[in-house]
Amino acid sequence: MGSAAKQQPTKPPGKGKSNVNQSTADRRARIAELRAEEQRRDRRNKFIAIGAAAVLLAGMVGGGAWIALDAKDKKDKEAAAAKAPIAGVQTFDNLTRNHVATKVTYPQTPPVGGDHSQVWLNCMGTVYDKPVENENAVHAMEHGAVWVTYNAKASADDITTLSTKVKTTPYSFMSPYPDEAGAITLTAWGTQLTVDSAADPRVASFFTKYVQGPQTQEPGASCSTAQ
User: Three-state DSSP class for 124?
Assistant: First the structure.
C-alpha cells in the first residue's frame, strides 16, 4: 500500500503582512522623530539669533545714545561759549556800510567796520603774508569773517599758532599789520580784542563767538572772491 502524502507546513495567516506594517510604522516614527529634532534645532537657532540681535541692538542703541548725548553736550558748551562775554572785547556801533571806490580813513587800527570796497577779501581760512587793503578786509568782516592781525611784537610761535587756527577756520583770514598798537589783534565787524600771545584763551573764545557770529551784517554771504 502506498504511503500517505506528507502535508507541507503552512505560514500563519497574515504574519508577513504584519511584519511589513511594523517596518513601515518604525520608519514613519523615525522620520517624525528626526523632523521633531530638526524643528527643535531650528527653534534653538532662532532663539540664539534673536538673542544676539537683541544684544547687538542694545549696544547700538546705547552707543547711539552716548554719541547723541556727547554731541548735545558739545553743542551746549559751544552755545554757552558763544553767549559768554569775553574780557577786553571792545564793541563799536552805528558803522556805515556804503560801497566806495576810494580810500577810507578809519578811526580804529585795524578798522572794525564802516564804508568799504565793493570787493571783499578771500576769507575762507586765508593767511596773507603781506598787509592787505583795509577796504577789502572790512567787506570780508561784513560777511561774518574774523580778521587776525599782528605786528613785530608777535613771536614766530604766535604767528605759526594763529596761522594754523585760521587755515582750519572758514570765515577767517590773517595778515600782518605793522601799525597796530598790540602784538595781536582779533577783529570782527564792530568788535575788537587785543592780546599779547596766541596762547591767550580768549583767542579761541573770540573765534567761537564771532566767526559768522551775531555781529555778522550779511549772514551766509560768500567768503570766496576773485580778489
Answer: strand
- Length, in residues, of the chain: 227
Helix 201-210 to helix 156-167 angle, to the nearest 10 degrees?
A: 30
Residue from 213, 141, 144, 215 nearest 175 by CA: 141
Q: Which three cell numbers stand for residue 202?
A: 580768549
Q: Is 82 exposed, middle or buried (0-12, 13-18, 19+ CB in 10 A)?
A: middle
Cell digits of residue 214: 551775531
Cα–Cα separations (whole angstroms), residue 34 to 30, 39, 40, 179: 6, 9, 10, 94
Radius of gyration of the chain (CA): 43
Tens digits of residue pLDDT in 87-116: 999 999 999 999 999 999 999 999 999 999
Give the C-alpha separation, 115 to 100, whole Å: 7
The C-alpha atoms of residue 135 and residue 118 are separated, in whole angstroms, by: 8
Dump pLDDT digits (tens) for 36-67.
Answer: 777 787 777 777 878 777 777 666 666 665 56
Domain boundaries, the chain: 15-83, 90-210
Beta-carbon neighbour count of residue 149 at 10 Å? 28
pTM of the model: 0.67
- Please name the residue that has the C-alpha cell 513601515: 24
- Name the burial class of residue 118, with classes exposed (0-12), middle (13-18) and buried (19+) by CB atoms within 10 angstroms of its CB: exposed
